[in-house]
Amino acid sequence: MHVLSSSELAVTAIFALILAVIAYWIIRNIPKMSGDIAAFRKRTLVWTQVSLVLTVLQLNFKAGDWRFSIVLGLIVLFTGSIWLSARYHDIRSTLDPESKDSEVH
Q1: DSSP string over 34-100
Q2: CB-based contacts of 8, cutoff 8 Å, min separation 6
Q3: Which residue ranges does UniProt annotate as crossing the membrane (predicted)?
């Protein structure tokens, strides 16, 4: 099995940190998005599914080499977290009609 070197671990950590910052920025701006949040949610779900399938295929066909699978796994976490937060915001906005009334006035 391939052991990750310290430089590969450092680059992976930097990539994870960049994805975490971008995800935080997107999640914080979801309530400010104008338009249909359902379309955004559907797009992020598609990208989550695509990255998950690629991760599983990579794990199945490239035994012993974890580098690309780790990157794909981070992308799954990134897109999945954005999808979950968009879904949470969509559910919360449909269950709380008072917040819509207060935004209009």
Answers
A1: -S-HHHHHHHHHHHHHHHHHHHHHHHHHSTT--HHHHHHHHHHHHHHHHHHHHHHHHHHHHH-HHHH
A2: 67
A3: 6-25, 45-61, 67-86
Domain ranges of the chain: 6-104
Tens digit of pLDDT for each residue in 24-83?
999 998 888 767 788 888 888 999 999 899 888 887 887 666 778 888 889 999 999 999
Token pair, residue 83, equals 């999808």
DSSP state of 105: -
Phi, psi of 32 (to 5 degrees): -85, -5
Q: How far apart are CA 25 and CA 71, in angstroms?
A: 20
